[in-house]
């Protein structure tokens, strides 16, 4: 079974465009700039070059250097600029070029961006959509692959989303950009180049863009994932089916707020859960998810929630990331552990 | 495929222009990153410029003897849509391989 396209309503069939995630996001950004003249895109190399991943390709030519522009290599300044522009009524869509470059901006994000609306009693909402090419999988050098979702999810005032395929990236970004709150949009760089069918017309129903989505239904256990790990979990589910095990794959999409009802609905049916993420194990988002599932499904769970994650080490560069990112066998081991668990 | 142009950089302290001496590549050539692609002469020196990316040459902006201004296009490349950019590599999609088999006796009730 291939990836299920979510958010597609039963309407007249619309021809699907074959787009990569970078192209889908590029298209979404162009539409946002077209429909919202307060929208501004800025960041390192997003203008003249069109982004190191070509995500903003052609946008400066189309919309001019006043709306799509390059910044100095200073993430704190990029976010500070975004905050000031949002205070002045603009809708900034800044890019931090790689997730590993976000650390200099963390002060601005946590101490200003996340709490300006709260601090000003709603007078200064921060409609800021921060795009961050995220996670690993492209064998980049140090500081070019991290997993910051649990860091951002921990901060009150921020929303965090991560798409897993082009269709989702297109609609989820447009939806995130329409929100009055700051959204950290974590784009899985390992999935930038994979093409898939995109239905551009499926975005009217924004309710379908909230919460999680079942990427593959199954009955014996639920694999919970987001970003690039969703496609890997779908591969695992395909292999598990050869062994007679039907795995459900729950694509979380929103990492803050987490779709508690969607988690509970899936795991209460399958009664077993495995969280898969690239970030380090300790205090990773898997811990939060395990707690939520344990609370909502305690009586039906057949095994403790399993976590298959990165290790508690600095993110390794180059080929070493193959040993770090959860691979098919490590995920299958996690599945085996919850399947063979027996109450003592 | 995408087109990427590179302007003539400032090769000295505040130089405004350079003269094309010799193209080291021609239209249609596959050029590798850091491969010298042109020799230009400024009022200070002549210098070979390395290509900042890998790609196929689409346009050479100027003939030998022409003066090119700093920040105006010098060369345009065609690059694949799935080229990785400045760092990293595009992940190869391989058929999923496994060593672990699931062997669960499910006592469903």
Offer a quick outline of the entry.
By secondary structure, chain A is an alpha/beta fold. Helices cover 34% and strands 17% of the residues of chain A.
What do these coordinates show?
The complex is a heterodimer of chains A (344) and B (109). Chain A has 344 residues and is α/β, with parallel strands linked by helices. Chain A has 2 domains: 17-209, 3-Layer(aba) Sandwich (Rossmann fold); 213-340, Rossmann fold (3-Layer(aba) Sandwich), CATH 3.40.50.920. Helices cover 34% and strands 17% of the residues of chain A. Chain A is built from 12 helices and 14 strands. Chain A has a 5-stranded mixed beta sheet with strand order 9-11-10-13-14, with helices on both faces. A 4-stranded mixed beta sheet of chain A has the order 5-7-6-12. In chain A, strands 3-2-4 form a 3-stranded parallel beta sheet. In chain A, α3 runs parallel beside α4 (106-113) and α8 (229-242) crosses α12. In chain B, the strands form 2 sheets. A 4-stranded antiparallel beta sheet of chain B has the order 1-8-6-3, with no helix packed on it. Chain B has a 4-stranded antiparallel beta sheet with strand order 5-4-2-7, with no helix packed on it. Chain B has one domain (2-79): OB fold (Dihydrolipoamide Acetyltransferase, E2P). The mean pLDDT of chain B is 86. Chain B has no helices and 8 strands. The chains are: A alpha/beta (344), B mainly beta (109). Chain A binds chain B through residues 20, 23, 49-50, 52-54, 57, 137-141, 144, 189-190, 193-194, 220, 235-236, 238-240, 243-245, 328-329, 332-333, 335-336, 339-340, and chain B through 2, 4, 81-82, 84-91, 93, 96-106.
The chain-level structural class of chain A is: alpha/beta
Helix and strand composition category of chain B? mainly beta
* Fold-level CATH name of the largest domain in chain A: Rossmann fold
Largest interface: A-B, 35 and 24 residues
Q: Main beta sheet of chain A, described?
A: 5 strands, mixed
């Amino acid at each position: 079974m291939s990836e299920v396209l979510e958010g597609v309503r039963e309407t007249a069939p619309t021809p699907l465009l074959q787009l990569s995630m970078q192209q889908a996001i590029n298209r979404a950004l162009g539409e946002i700039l077209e429909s919202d003249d307060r929208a501004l895109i800025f960041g390192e190399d997003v203008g003249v070059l069109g982004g190191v991943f070509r995500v903003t390709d052609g946008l400066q030519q189309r919309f001019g250097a006043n709306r799509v522009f390059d910044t100095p290599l200073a993430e704190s300044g990029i976010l500070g600029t975004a905050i000031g522009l949002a205070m002045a009524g603009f809708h900034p869509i800044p890019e931090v070029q790689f997730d590993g470059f976000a650390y200099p901006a963390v002060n601005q994000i946590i101490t200003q961006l996340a709490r300006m609306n709260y601090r000003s009693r709603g007078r200064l909402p921060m409609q800021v959509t921060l795009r961050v090419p995220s996670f690993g999988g492209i064998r980049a050098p140090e500081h070019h692959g991290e997993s910051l979702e649990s860091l951002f999810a921990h901060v009150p005032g921020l929303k965090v989303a991560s798409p897993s395929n082009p269709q989702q990236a297109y609609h989820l970004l447009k939806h995130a950009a329409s929100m009055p709150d700051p959204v950290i949009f974590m784009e899985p760089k390992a999935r930038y180049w994979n093409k898939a069918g995109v239905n551009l017309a499926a975005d009217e129903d924004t309710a379908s863009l909230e919460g999680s989505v079942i990427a593959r239904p199954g009955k014996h256990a639920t694999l919970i994932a987001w970003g690039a790990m969703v496609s890997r979990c779908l591969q695992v589910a395909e292999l598990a089916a050869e062994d007679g095990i039907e795995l459900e794959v729950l694509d979380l999409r929103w990492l803050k707020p987490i779709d508690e009802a969607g988690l509970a609905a899936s795991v209460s049916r399958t009664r077993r859960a495995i969280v898969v993420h690239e970030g380090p194990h300790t205090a990773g988002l898997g811990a939060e998810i395990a707690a939520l599932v344990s609370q909502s499904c305690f009586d039906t769970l057949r095994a403790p929630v399993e976590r298959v994650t990165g290790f508690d080490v600095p993110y390794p560069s180059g080929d070493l990331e193959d040993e770090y990112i959860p691979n098919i066998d490590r995920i299958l081991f996690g599945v085996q552990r919850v399947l063979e668990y027996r109450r003592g | 495929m995408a087109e990427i142009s590179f302007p003539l950089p400032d090769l000295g302290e505040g130089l405004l222009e350079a003269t094309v001496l010799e193209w080291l590549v021609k239209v249609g050539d596959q050029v590798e990153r850091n491969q010298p692609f042109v020799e230009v002469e400024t009022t200070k020196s002549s210098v070979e410029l390395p290509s900042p990316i890998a790609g196929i040459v689409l346009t050479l902006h100027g003939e030998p003897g022409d003066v090119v201004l700093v920040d105006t296009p010098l060369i345009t490349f065609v690059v694949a849509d799935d080229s990785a950019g400045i760092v990293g590599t595009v992940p190869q999609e391989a058929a999923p391989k496994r060593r672990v088999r699931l062997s669960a006796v499910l006592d469903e009730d």
